[in-house]
Amino acid sequence: MNILILGSGGREHAIAWKLNQSSKCKNLFVAPGNAGTASIAQNIPIGVNDFEKIEEVVLKNAIDLVVVGPEDPLVNGVHDYFLNNDKLVNIPVIGPQKAAAQLEGSKEFAKEFMVRHNIPTAAYESFTVDNLEDGYSFLEKLKAPYVLKADGLAAGKGVLILNDLEEAKQELRAMLQDAKFGKASTTVVIEEFLSGIELSVFVLTDGEGYKVLPTAKDYKRIGEGDTGLNTGGMGAISPVPFTNADFMNKIHERVVKPTVEGLKTDSLPYKGFIFIGLIKVGDDPFVIEYNVRLGDPETEVVIPRIKNDLVEVFQAVAEQKLDSIDLQIDERTATTVMAVSGGYPGAYEKGKEITGFETIEDSIVFHAGTKIENDKVVTNGGRVLAVTSYGNDFKEALKKSYENIEKLHFDRINYRKDIGFDL
Ligand code: AMP
Ligand code: GLY
Predict the structure, then answer these.
(1) Nearest-atom index, ligand 1, CA of 194
(2) Taking the CB of the first residue and of the last residue of the chain, which one, N or C, has fewer CB atoms within 10 A?
(3) How sure is the predictor about 311, in pLDDT bands with cuts at 50, 70 and 90?
(4) In this structure, is residue 257 part of a structural domain?
């Protein structure tokens, strides 16, 4: 099989690393990819939202399967583009069609979906500029902290959590009236604050059957002790140690099953990953968000724990035979620690040479923001490398990730020293 992966992060490098291990994978392409994917696949310098270029690449290279990494092309309808094109219609795409991608593309859509299918989530109401005053009244009825969410995609920045009522009202106005997040905040969802520990569950579905993949927890804040600005993720652990069988069963019965059933009932075709962001309130799971793709850096700990041939698994999704797959999960814990550019998530420089790869022992280095320049690997983004390790528990795995990340060097390298501190 010739396979094309869309994306350029650590998630896409991890998917490429796994697909590349399959004897069924003949030629592997990543668009646009990074320096890590260049070492195991052919990178193609096109954008993930340039559907016409993607079509050209797919036809030219006789691609048999397309795996979509990030949410943007899914929300923009890349899967539908294939289905509506005579030359592409028989090439399977892993990732939902536009209609179901609204689960991530619109917070209001996702909340309505959860309410319709009795899936536990925080109470909410949504507002536009036309009922701003009602938004203020709703805020007055809630207790602090106040959770405001821009309805649309806002590059992970669209959620505000505020302690002060007046500030919450100001921000609501900024979002609705002053387009603080552009079009993404034309509608704002205000919801009840839930207090608990967060975790994520990943589900792979072919639209009929589904498999629950390993759980993971990521560390989003830049600073130690979960302080400072939000990032795309500074590290991750799989499985999360605080989920016992009883809690997993609740997630299964109350969340995963009704989600997959709900997609069917609502006629939302779905072949791909569902990333369910959860919060454990007492002993009960509540859904915070859906994403219609794998997480980054969660993928860098989830994919390495899947023992199956991933090409076979994706083929089964395409043929709607996922039920025939016996999913095998590695019992060990996997951890990853992200090395980021100094200054990230604010302004940072690119083009810094990265050294030390040859000294890594017993860890896998997944590349995120890297590229090759004059035969050297240089930084090319905020999140640069994810150092993944296995262990019998998360402490053992983290020890290896930290021993190895210290051997990697670039100007102003930064990473959190306390991944797993709260477990
Ligand atoms: P989201 O983009 O919806 O995942 O929200 C970003 C982050 O905001 C989540 O990872 C949570 O840490 C936090 N958050 C979102 N919704 C709530 C809520 N209802 N209660 C508490 N925290 C929340
Ligand atoms: N790590 C969070 C995300 O991928 O959205």
Answers:
(1) 20
(2) C
(3) very high
(4) no
